TrEMBL record, chains A, B:
PANTHER family: ALLANTOATE AMIDOHYDROLASE, ALLANTOATE DEIMINASE-RELATED. This is N-carbamoyl-L-amino acid hydrolase. SUPFAM superfamilies: Bacterial exopeptidase dimerisation domain (SSF55031), Zn-dependent exopeptidases (SSF53187). Zn(2+) 2 binds at residues 90, 125, 378. It comes from Roseovarius albus. The gene is amaB_4. Belongs to the peptidase M20 family. Keywords: Hydrolase, Metal-binding, Zinc. Binds 2 Zn(2+) ions per subunit.
Length: 406, 406
């Protein structure tokens, strides 16, 4: 079994990097805080003498070598970047539990046939640079390396600028580092396991995601003297777009719709906005339902555009992550591990996107979930109990050992 | 008559300070660019040997002395700060035309009985620090000096911090500098004069303004796993608030409603916002109509709050600028000056707020408007023609001379 005190104290130590009030952490992808978090992690790895390397999109890998030198590694991993107001578990758990697995094997002097690697994927959150799951997307060929390097944040800083600034630009070509299997431990980020009083979620796959940018172009003018009828004010049409998005999510209980960002320009109390930018996130566990939601959304946008000829309204899909089914044998292995240790477990479909979704396209993959308090994440008050963290890491250990072979 | 080439070239020189693309200027109140604009203006004034001084809220005054040493001055003025995407005329015109009046009198060796001062009021725009017309508000006692000094921008920097940083903290107590009369030249910022093909607007007064901050408090959570029914998402209620605000403005043709700022927090594409902040600007030339609009707005907010018990919704009035009537003799003087010079003129009520509204509460005051292209301002493409600028400055000269006395 893993050393739960060591794992917990590492999670708490990591949370101090980029700490924000109310127990939160802010380590936006490839920011100095994200780099500092990686440095802390690397120091722990080097202390144990593990070999570390990285690739051209900044994904980090740590290896505990196996006896079969040429066999493909079993990879455990997740991410160290966070949301602007992130918590202490989303991402960090999977990385630090991966390291805990390696150290536990060392503590017990257990050697494995296959290498076991821990991966830290670049920019999983997708909040600073879009899309999410960026490092694993490039690694698996879902995203193109040159286009991804050129992606800019809202201040015009590119992924490439940051990789160069932090010395992450001289890595392996992504894909050079081939992997055998992938297992990711994560908090559920939803309310199901807690409500069902389960300790372990046996993740069978993940739902589909589509992201859109909507732009409403009007004309900046003064809030006082200009008559209402002669304004090109995009705000009334914004209300129609909000109504549209939330109607679309009513198609069934499983669908989701979120508007996380609304930016008015120039953002001045006495100026009619000249432009509004809106982000839209639509999800469904059923690919055809999401397809249908997308169609209704884009048709709805056209109807709103036609009713508002004084504006220019455009919607673009900027990301699609398809429905994922995890590998049957690996899912069974997670079920077996939970059963063996008497952890209450249930099957679950992931509502959040994870790097595992990308990895599943190139190698047998699965995930392990543990509950989080009130189903809350992407929030400083995100919390998982030490008992659940320990259970998740033990299931990760057992599943890794089963595929790496003693 | 004024020297129209000199005035025009000064307007263009000022526009280079804080220049932004498409002929715009950005000199947010008390920013370094705003200070640089003041320095340029002061250099022109000192070159002519005019005495300059400032007060504790950073209002700047320039004096061309009259022969009656103890008589109260005739003050011409406006502001040098701009909107984030401001133009070249809003504010600058009144200040630089004021200086042009002083220089014209010097060029023609005309002495006046009363002093003629030019005032540069601090933070007229109200975009960085609320409310608008801040410097003149403190000067006239409408706003309290200590409260105003403590006002912070969205980055937490206070007015006082900036005044100290730029050496503007050692000035006269506001009000120590007493004034006799006030005249402000400004672009109309609306479409009326252009549509009516008039050169001069004889401004009889200004409409009432109320500003509100609305806060919608929900709970940050993940855009994927959390079911729609268990979210505390403030975005659907935002649509109801937008609809409310624009319905309220339909009360009559003269009323105005604007939502210039919408800020979602933490502003991440895959996070349900935990909070939304919305600015609301309501105006009417009829005080009782605006009173009624405010009542309907606050009642509407309560109704929306009741229908959304999972959220905390609050609206606060942060500013009220009452209806203003300018001084009859001064309005007549503007009419007379336009008539004498054969400029096509008409009476008009100001839709924008101006420092003159505050000054009107302590001294006989009036304003002169000139047309601006397409009625557009608070926009880089704001434009006034050299002919209209010249005409406005000549009316300012004649009106100032009438009250200062040769
Ligand atoms: N796990 C997680 O929060 N991923 C971010 C990608 C997404 O689901 O939006
Ligand atoms: N003139 C002008 O744009 N004033 C700003 C104050 C306001 O009317 O909102």
């Amino acid at each position: 079994s893993i050393n739960s005190e060591r794992l917990w104290s590492r999670i708490m130590d990591m949370a101090e990097i980029g700490e924000i009030p109310r127990n939160g952490s802010r380590r936006l992808a490839m920011s100095q805080d994200d780099i500092d978090g990686r440095e802390l992690f690397l120091a722990w790895c080097k202390n144990r003498g593990y070999q570390t390397f990285y690739d051209k999109i900044g994904n980090l890998f740590v290896r505990r070598s196996g006896t079969e030198v040429s066999a493909l590694p079993v990879v455990l991993g997740s991410h160290l970047d966070t949301q602007p107001n992130g918590g202490r578990f989303d991402g960090m758990l999977g990385v630090l539990a991966g390291l805990e697995v390696l150290e536990t094997l060392d503590d017990h002097k257990i050697s494995t046939r296959k290498h076991i690697d821990v991966a830290v994927w670049t920019n999983e959150e997708g909040t600073r640079f879009q899309p999410a799951m960026m490092g694993s997307g490039v690694f698996t060929g879902t995203l193109s390396l040159p286009e991804t390097l050129a992606t800019k944040d809202s201040n015009g800083v590119s992924v490439s600028d940051e990789l160069i600034a932090h010395g992450y630009d001289k890595g392996l070509p992504p894909g050079n580092h081939r992997i055998g299997r992938y297992i990711e431990l994560h908090i559920e980020q939803g309310p199901v396991l807690e409500a069902e009083e389960k300790t372990i979620g046996i993740v069978t796959g993940g739902q589909a995601i589509r992201w859109f940018n909507v732009t409403l172009q009007g004309e900046e003018t003064h809030a006082g003297p200009v008559p209402m009828a002669s304004r090109k004010d995009p705000v009334p049409a914004l209300a129609r777009i909000i109504d549209l998005v939330f109607q679309i999510a009513e198609v069934d209980m499983a669908s989701r719709a979120t508007i996380g960002e609304i930016d008015t320009f120039p953002s001045s109390i006495n100026v009619v906005p000249g432009q509004i930018q809106v982000s839209v996130d639509l999800r469904s566990p059923d690919e055809s339902v999401l397809e249908n939601m997308q169609q209704r959304f884009l048709e709805g946008i056209q109807t709103i555009a036609k009713a508002n000829k004084h504006l220019k309204i455009e919607a673009n899909c900027i990301w699609h992550s398809a429905v994922v089914q995890f590998d049957k044998d690996m899912v069974d292995a997670v079920r077996g591990a939970a059963l063996k240790r008497d952890y209450a477990a249930m099957e679950i479909v992931s509502g959040a996107g994870h790097d595992a979704f990308n990895l599943a396209r190139i190698a047998p993959t699965t995930m392990v979930f543990i509950p989080c308090k009130d189903g809350i994440s992407h929030n400083e008050r995100e919390y998982a109990s030490p008992e659940h963290v320990e259970a998740g890491a033990n299931v990760l250990l057992d599943t890794a050992l089963q595929f790496a072979g003693k």
